[in-house]
Write a structure and sequence with these properties.
- By secondary structure, the chain is mainly beta.
- It has one domain.
- The protein is 11% helix and 33% strand.
- The radius of gyration is 12 Å and the shape is globular.
Length: 83
């Protein structure tokens, strides 16, 4: 899938119309994304996110949830602390 819009740093819209909220600790990974970046969406085995977006070129991964959903507070704090 390609990026349709990434106007807000924490939300990315893909060309299939889906919108995903990027995990706060993974935002730096998205700075190099361009509209032509090829991304793959996969279910996550992580307790914080429901899915991961994988950059096909360099295999970097960012944790995401559907836009409009809320991150689980305790899990986010633990993940950001490295727990």
């Amino acid at each position: 899938m390609k990026i349709q819009a990434h106007a807000e740093s924490h939300v990315v819209e893909l060309d299939d119309g889906s919108r995903w909220q990027i995990f706060p600790g993974d935002l730096a990974t998205t700075l190099s994304w361009k509209p032509e970046t090829d991304l793959h969406l996969e279910p996550s085995r992580d307790r914080v996110s429901s899915h991961v977006l994988i950059n096909a070129a360099d295999r970097t991964r960012v944790r995401v949830i559907a836009a409009g959903e809320a991150w689980p507070d305790g899990e986010v704090k633990d993940a950001l602390k490295g727990g």
